[in-house]
């Protein structure tokens, strides 16, 4: 199946980025059956989590979460996890493993920006899954509402930053392929760190104090712990703004770090193992 490329308006500073993002989205949507099944089955992990945690909490509390708060936490976790794994990191890895990156180096397009545009475009394809699953779960399970309108807005802002954050973590992981020549193990490690240290698996509040400190010192916490903490009022407005500022700092820092690693990585470019 072929996908028509989007027209590029010359002179616009982001025309290439927009075209690459739209093309990546179209590639994802081209496989309609896979896309529809991902929407239909995307909510099952959320349902499983709700059943498990309802049995654990019952009428009491765990780590400061009662059942209403935990329902909200799990729904937010579903939303952020769907977004976090919506990108196509393998598309980036294959370009390095197959030597296609050598061709990219001859193009007048910044490699990192191009991959970011494609990654965000592929992430956009999972937005229907995230939205439909979240709305359905909201009406079905009636979770705790946000503590305030301000908290709701700040929660949305923190979730939006997940898009660049997810790309940069995946991109940094993919750059390791220049040295490892493999990606499976790197991907498994990256996904494991993200699942555990973000609070997707278990809320960070249930971890020992030292492990909470480690988790909050890493960028992964901003995928689930940050938006849920803001939404549930576990931090005030000042604390929420601080968490978002830290999240933004990670976005900027990892973008710069990726630039520095790229300069060393391209020196190891080989084509078909030659």
TrEMBL record:
The chain crosses the membrane at residues 35-56, 68-87, 119-141, 153-180, 192-211, 231-258. The keyword Iron does not apply. It comes from the Bacteria. Keywords: Membrane, Transmembrane, Transmembrane helix. It holds the Pfam family ABC2_membrane_6. The keyword Transmembrane helix applies. This is Antibiotic ABC transporter permease. The lineage of its organism: Bacteria, Bacillati, Actinomycetota, Actinomycetes, Glycomycetales.
């Amino acid at each position: 199946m072929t996908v028509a490329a989007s027209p590029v308006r010359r002179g616009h500073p982001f025309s290439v980025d927009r075209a690459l993002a739209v093309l990546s989205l179209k590639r994802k949507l081209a496989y309609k059956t896979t896309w529809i099944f991902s929407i239909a089955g995307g909510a099952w992990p959320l349902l499983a989590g709700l059943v498990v945690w309802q049995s654990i909490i019952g009428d009491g509390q765990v780590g400061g979460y009662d059942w209403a708060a935990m329902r909200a936490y799990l729904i937010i976790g579903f939303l952020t996890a769907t977004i976090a794994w919506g990108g196509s990191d393998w598309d980036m890895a294959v370009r390095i493993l197959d030597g296609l990156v050598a061709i990219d180096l001859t193009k007048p397009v910044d490699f990192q920006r191009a991959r970011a545009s494609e990654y965000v475009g592929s992430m956009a394809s999972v937005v229907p899954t995230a939205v439909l699953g979240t709305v359905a779960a909201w009406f079905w399970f009636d979770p705790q509402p946000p503590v305030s309108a301000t908290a709701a807005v700040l929660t949305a802002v923190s979730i939006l930053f997940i898009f660049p954050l997810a790309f940069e973590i995946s991109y940094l992981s993919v750059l390791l392929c220049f040295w490892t020549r493999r990606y499976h193990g790197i991907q498994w490690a990256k996904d494991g760190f993200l699942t555990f240290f973000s609070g997707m698996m278990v809320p960070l509040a249930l971890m020992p104090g030292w492990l909470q400190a480690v988790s909050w010192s890493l960028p992964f916490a901003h995928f689930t712990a940050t938006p849920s903490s803001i939404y549930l009022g576990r931090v005030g407005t000042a604390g929420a703004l601080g968490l978002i500022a830290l999240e933004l700092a990670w976005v900027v820092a990892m973008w710069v770090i990726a630039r520095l690693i790229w300069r060393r990585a391209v020196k190891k470019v080989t084509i078909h193992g030659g």
